[in-house]
Amino acid sequence: MRAPLHSAWIWLPPAAAIAAIGLILATGANHALFLLLNRAGGLLGVEAWLRLTMLGDGAIALVMVLPGIRRAPRCFWAALVAAVFAGLWTQVTKQFIDVPRPLAVFGAGEFFHAGPAYRQVSFPSGHAAAAFALAGIGVMGMDGGRLARALPMLVATLVALSRIMIGVHWPVDVLWGMVGGWIGAWAGLALHGRCGWRTSGAGGVLAGLLLLATAASLLVSPHIGIPSAMPLQRLIAGACFVWGAWEMAAMLPWRAWSRRRRLRRLRGGRLAANRHGPPVAAADAKGAETRVIERRAADG
After folding, report:
1. Which residue stretches of 199-300 are H helix?
2. Is the peptide bond before 279 cis (omega within 30 degrees of 0)?
3. From CA 289, how far away is CA 138, in angstroms rounded?
4. Helix, strand, coil: what percent of the chain each, to 5?
5. pTM of the model
6. pLDDT band per the 50, 70, 90 thresholds, residue 298
7. Which among 123, 127, 132 has a CA at the least distance from the CA of 115?
8. Cα dihedral sign for 102, 104, 106, 107?
9. Can you give the residue ranges of every domain in the chain?
10. How far apart are CA 300 and CA 280, in angstroms?
11. What is the mean pLDDT of the chain?
12. CA angle, 182 as apex, 207 and 94 as ends, to 5°?
C-alpha cells in the first residue's frame, strides 16, 4: 500500500533533516561531528564505504531505475524528474554557497580521507541527493509495508554517511542533499500523477535507450574514479543493461502486433463457427424436443 500524503513517511525525513541542520548550525558542531563520524567509520572498513559511496553517483542511480521501465513506469518517470531536480538543487546551491571541503580545513593526518582530493564547493552532497531521491521514490511511490520502506531509507542513509566517512563532505552537506533528493522524489511522483506518462511511447523508448547507453559506458569507463569499486560498478551496469534491455524488448510494438494477429485469428475462427452454428443448434433443439415427446409417451 502506498504511503498517503498525511503519512509520516512523506514529511518526516525532510523535516528531520532540516531540524538537524538547524541544530548543527546553531551549536557550531559541524566540524566536530564530522571528525567524530569520520573516525568512527573505520569500524566498517574503507572498502565498504567506498562501495557504498559509489551507489550515490548520479549515473549509477539513473541506471538502477532502468529495470523498472516496463513494470513500474510511475517510478521510472519520477526518478528521471527527481534526477533533474536533485541535480539543479545541488549545482545551483554550489554556485551561491562555496563551502571549503574537509581537506581544505584540516590537515591530511587529522581525519580519514579516501576519496578524490576535492577542496571546494562542498555544500551540498550530490551523492546524498541521488540516494535519497531513489529512496523517496521507493518509500512514497511503491507498495509495501514498513520493512519495504525502511530498507531503501537505510541504504540511502549509509550512502550519505559514506561521504563523511571517506572525508569529502560535512554533515550539513549530506543533510541538505537529503532534503533536495526527497523533494525531487515527491515532485517526480506528483508530476507523473498529473501527466500520467507512459514508457511504451516514443518518449519512454528514447529515455530507455539513453539509460542503456549510460549503462554500456559504465561497463568500460572508470567513471567513479575508485579502482576498488570498479567491479561493483561493472556488475550493476551489466545487470541493469541486460535487465533493462529485456524489459524494453517486451514493450516493443511487435508484441502488440503479435497479440492483434492472434486476436484476429481467434475472431476469424469464431466467425467460421458461427456460420455453421444455427443448423447445428436447430438440430440439437429438434432432437431434444423429440426426446421429450418420446419420454412423455412412455410415461403415459
Report:
1. 202-220, 230-251, 253-275, 277-299
2. no
3. 65
4. 75, 0, 25
5. 0.82
6. very low
7. 127
8. positive
9. 8-251, 263-299
10. 30
11. 86
12. 85
